[in-house]
Amino acid sequence: MEQNAVVSKPTQWVSSTKEFFRDTSAEMKKVTWPARTEVLGTTVVVIAATLVFAVYLWGCDLVFYKAINFLFTRFGAST
């Protein structure tokens, strides 16, 4: 008796899921993980760069706000 297509779908799903986790486990064993000091160092660099760009963009925003506000008040547009 032939196996019904509806019955074979769960079997295929289970086997493909097992294969996925087996392949994932094999690939994770090949990964070279960074040392703790390297992770901390790159984290500090990312935080510092974020702060520098945040201050820079805040400054640009302030300059543009003041310039637009000056133009609107100088040439009669109401704010």
3D structure, described in words:
This protein is mostly helical and 79 residues long. The chain contains 2 helices and no strands. The protein has helices at 5-30, 36-74. The radius of gyration is 29 Å and the shape is elongated.
Short summary of the structure?
The chain is elongated. It is an all-alpha fold and 79 residues long. It has helices spanning 5-30, 36-74.
Helix-strand layout with pairing:
Blueprint: H1 5-30, H2 36-74
Record field, number of beta strands:
0
Strand content: under 5%
Q: Determine the fraction of residues in helical runs and give it as a percent range.
A: over 70%
Q: Low-confidence parts lasting 5 or more residues at pLDDT below 50?
A: none
Shape: elongated
Order of helices and strands: HH
* Total tally of structural domains: 2
**Alpha-beta classification:** mainly alpha
Biggest sheet layout: none
What's the helix count?
A: 2
Give descriptors for this structure.
79 residues, mainly alpha
